[in-house]
Amino acid sequence: MPRTSLDQLNAFVAVAQHGSFSQAARVLRKDRATLHSQVGDLEIDWGVTLFDRSGRSPSLTAEGHSLLSQARHILYQLNALENACDAIAQGHEHELTVHHDMSIPCEMIRSLDAQVRDAFPHTQLNWLHRSREESAAALLRKEADLAVMLTAGQVVPTEGLSFTNLGYPRFAFFAYKDAPLAQQQSVSLADLERHRQYLAENFADILKTPLAMSAQTVRVSNTDVLLALLKNGGYALLPYHLLDAEPYRDQYRPLPLDFMVQDGRVGYVLLSLSRSGGPAKAFLQQRIEEAFRTMC
Q1: CA 96, 98, 103: angle at the middle one, nearest 5?
Q2: Most buried pick, 2, 28, 44, 293, via CB within 10 A?
Q3: What does the buried/exposed string (b/e) look like for 204-216 if buried means 16 or more CB atoms within 10 Å of the residue's CB?
Q4: Distance between CA atoms of 157 and 279, rounded to whole angstroms?
């Protein structure tokens, strides 16, 4: 059994922090004699003198200094445990797992993560890049709570899942700012055929339409890798919102195609398990919807 009570630890830390039994007693709303007794009993139980009482005010001994941080840590952990218990009692989720498409900007994820952590500090968030099929299966197995995915218009979800149409952001063919294609005033289909094209794997799999304009096509599954490869030349179909975010802003240019009057648009959906979730999930859903309203 522990030889120490939480009241004793609180008394020790409070006296050390305020440098006075009287001030510590006022903060803890206890009488001075009680704190004297609790600290004295703690010193007896530990066999250590925590305070030098020879002066007008108690001062920590070397031993007291060495033990203070550990005492504070124990009290901090207890407070965190009690807050976590309160969150569970109020129905706050312990953990949320979000699957997302590779085209979701990192800055959007960072902002969403910060908002949820600020509102629900005891809810752990996991962000996993997965395909639409993997996400749907994980949702049904209750291994994920939400999924933000591309859609080509087939918005009827798998049975058991609900969806929210998040909108249709603009997509275009982009090249790195210093690449030859980016210097042209007009880009023809013949120009595209002569340059290497990078195909984002998720776009090709979701859209189910011929996206290859070039005889030199390279499939890439990672956004950062694809954008790095574009610095060597070539082009790729990408969403504006991805390249308008840091650290890519002003680094890539949409190609002025002479055979397209308008940019293309591709939809996003928010998938979730029907009739499930608590306040943190509902809060995150609202923030995702707000982020897409701004983006679209």
Answers
A1: 160
A2: 28
A3: bbbbeeeeebbee
A4: 23
Contact residues for 82 (Cβ-Cβ < 8 A; gap 6+): none
Nearest CA to 109 out of 243, 228, 245 is that of 245
Query: Is residue 290 classed as helix, strand or coil in its secondary structure?
Result: helix
Q: What is residue 244's DSSP assignment?
A: T
CB 21 within 8 A of CB 58: yes
Other CB atoms closer than 10 Å to residue 92's CB: what's the count?
19
Q: How far apart are CA 68 and CA 234, in angstroms?
A: 61
105 CB-side CA count, 13 A: 21
Domains of the chain and CATH, by start = 6-89 (1.10.10.10), 95-168+267-295 (3.40.190.10), 170-265 (3.40.190.10)
pLDDT tens sequence across 15-33: 999 988 999 889 888 988 9
Least confident of 114-123, 128-137, 148-157: 148-157
211 contacts 235 by C-beta, under 8 angstroms: no
What strands lie across the sheet with 146-151, from one edge to the other? Answer: 124-129, 95-100, 146-151, 267-273, 161-167
Other Cβ atoms within 10 Å of 53 Cβ, number:
14
**C-alpha neighbours within 13 Å on the C-beta side of residue 148:** 25
CB 214 within 8 A of CB 274: no
Please name the helix (run of DSSP H) or strand (run of DSSP E) that holds residue 48, with its range, or none: none
Predicted confidence (pLDDT) per residue in 140-198, tens digit: 898 999 999 888 655 555 667 888 899 988 999 999 999 999 999 999 999 999 999 99
End-to-end CA distance of the chain: 61
Classify the C-alpha dihedral 115-118-123-127 as positive or negative: positive
